[in-house]
Amino acid sequence: MSKHQIEILFIAGFGSSLLFGTVIGSFADKFGRRNNCLIYGILYGLACVTKHFANMKILMIGRFLGGIATSILYSAFESWLVYEHNKRGFNEKLLGTIFSHAALGNSIVAIVAGVAAQAVADAFGYVAPFDLSLIVLVVMCAFVFQTWPENYGDEKAPVKETFMKALHTIKTDVNVLCLGLVQSLFEGSMYTFVLEWTPALSKASADPIPHGYIFAGFMVATMMGSSLFKLLTKSGRPEDFMRYVLLLSAACLAVPIIFPTSAAAIFIAFLVFEICVGIFWPAMGCLRGTYVPEETRSTTINLFRVPLNLIVIFILWQNFSMTAIFQFCVLFLLLAAMAQHVLYSHCTRAVLPEKTPAANQH
User: Fold this and answer.
1) Residue-number span of the structural domain to which 115 is assigned
2) Which of 253, 332, 245 has the alpha carbon at shortest distance from 287?
3) CA 287/CA 301 separation, integer angstroms
4) How many CA atoms lie within 13 A of 208 on its CB side?
5) In-domain check, residue 362
6) How many C-beta atoms lie closer than 10 Å to residue 157's C-beta?
7) Could you give the CA distance from residue 67 to residue 85 in angstroms, rounded to a whole number?
8) I need a labelling partner for 79 at 20 to 30 A (CA). Which of 30, 35, 64, 321 fits?
9) Total structural domains within the chain
């Protein structure tokens, strides 16, 4: 398969997530978050099956299914968790701990999955990892079906009305708008980084790079970030410290632009960026849990992914140089830091009036 065909398949996945995933992923608020999680397992399972066919049309269908499933993955599971957390009256700070542990677990699972995928690929061929994924998805669906209670957003509202409510919230609530911008701009840069770290390091290194060890290093860095998030929350709020995390992320992705031939500098910068990614995931989970309305949570989170998909499609579609791509990433991250600062400033102004009367009593 040619590089151009691979790029087309990538674009198809993000395009599918943009066009279809936004709608189907938003069904969770009306038809149930647990049901949507089960649909995720079915769609991604079918996408895995398509990898057995050396046919561009079938592979394209698989990418469409995978794109839709990805939208569900990043909205329905979190929406289910936040609803159940609030319903059961757990401490608000515990939500941050849950997201931090989830980010840590994701990194561990990614490392184990990478080793397992390589083992089955060596033994049975390159399609075997997708068969292993299918087994995991079946187990996940069985577990969700048997153990999770169902919950909803506004199940009585028509889907169109839910969309309109979510759009209205984004347009009228500065906190939600800024949160959506931060998520889209950071994740757009992150997904672009996923595609570009290999060429950046390969170009800077005289010898072939050890992809497996580098990926493992990235996952360890992400785990460090998720642990660091717990330390940061003991002395500050995500609204505050995420401003500096986003600025640090921008500085990291500027390194391949400034030092394009220094493999060591680029690798260290990429490791620090992955630490920032490890902080970002639980921080965004907490912020969404705080500011996104419950009745349209899944719909709003899926709408946040629209600019993200547009960013990645735009960069993939154009034949930009690697330097230009990282320049875009730095710009996106600086804009994300600005949006985060607006969110922080707005929250600070909202808290001050509440404290003033108490202060006047002393």
Assistant:
1) 3-348
2) 245
3) 12
4) 3
5) no
6) 17
7) 28
8) 64
9) 1
Of the candidates 183, 144, 160, 178, the residue with the CA atom closest to the CA atom of residue 302: 183
> Can you list the positions of beta strands (E) in 51-189?
none
Return d(Cα 256, Cα 2) in angstroms, integer: 27
**Which tokens in the block code for residue 125?**
């061929």
Place of tokens 């600019």: 307
Question: What is the rounded distance in angstroms from the CA atom of residue 83 to the CA atom of residue 268?
Answer: 39
The half-sphere exposure of 225 on its side-chain side, counting CA atoms within 13 A, is 30
Q: CB-based burial of residue 311 (10 Å sphere; 0-12 exposed, 13-18 middle, 19+ buried)?
A: buried
Cβ contact 276:252 at 8 Å: yes
In three-state secondary structure terms, 37 is: helix
Write down how long the chain is. 362
Per-residue pLDDT tens digits of the chain, which is 362 residues long: 666 677 788 888 888 888 887 788 677 788 899 999 999 999 999 999 999 998 999 999 999 999 999 989 988 899 899 999 989 988 877 888 899 899 889 889 988 888 888 889 889 998 999 999 999 999 999 999 999 999 988 777 777 888 899 899 999 999 999 999 999 999 999 999 998 999 999 999 888 888 878 988 999 999 999 999 999 998 899 999 999 999 999 999 999 999 999 999 999 999 999 999 999 999 999 999 899 988 888 888 889 988 988 988 888 888 789 999 999 999 999 999 999 999 999 988 765 554 444 444 44
- Judge whether 252 lies within some domain: yes
360, part of any domain: no
Whichever domain contains 213, its CATH number is 1.20.1250.20
